[in-house]
Structure formats: C-alpha cells, structure tokens
Amino acid sequence: MINSENTADPLDSALALLDILVILLVDDDPLTGITLLILLKMVTDNRLIRILFILLLIALGSTSKQ
C-alpha cells in the first residue's frame, strides 16, 4: 500500500514552474502576474484546468508583447 502523504504529484511541480513563468512573462510588472495567479487559484480547484489557464495566460502574454 502506497502512502499518499509521502508521494509527490508531478502536477504540483508543473504548477509551480508555470506559476513562475507567468510571473516572469506577463507584462513588465510582476505584481500583475502574481495577482492573476492568486485569482486563478481562488477560482478553480481542478489542477488540470488551472494548468490550461496558466498556459493560456503565457500564450496571450507572449503574443501581446510582439
């Protein structure tokens, strides 16, 4: 039997990396990225949907700079 408390979920690691990318890539002000991430975490509990929204933010942020 696997103890679920000691196992790390790969989605948690991916979320942490995507959070950092959003903070760095969205606008020139990191406060905007932090605010977006906080609002996103408050709105959704599903990690997969949160990852998709973060990827959408990254895509929109990178296309708006060009």
Written overview of the protein:
Helix 1 (10-25) runs antiparallel to helix 2 and helix 1 (10-25) packs parallel to helix 3 (47-65). It contains three helices and no strands. 74% of the residues lie in helices and 0% in strands. It is mostly helical. The termini are far apart. The chain has one domain. The model has no long low-confidence stretch (mean pLDDT 76). The radius of gyration is 14 Å and the shape is elongated. Keywords: Membrane, Transmembrane, Transmembrane helix. The chain crosses the membrane at residues 20-40, 47-64.
CA gyration radius, whole angstroms: 14 Å
Main beta-sheet annotation? none
Amino-to-carboxy terminus distance: 51 Å
Structural class: mainly alpha
Q: Which range best describes the helical content: under 10%, 10-25%, 25-40%, 40-55%, 55-70% or over 70%?
A: over 70%
Number of strands: 0
Strand content of the residues, in percent?
A: under 5%
Low-confidence residue ranges: none
Question: If you average the pLDDT, what whole number results?
Answer: 76
How many domains in all?
A: 1
| DSSP helical segment count | 3
Which overall shape is indicated by the principal axes computed on the Cα atoms? elongated
What letter string, H or E per element, gives the SSE order?
HHH
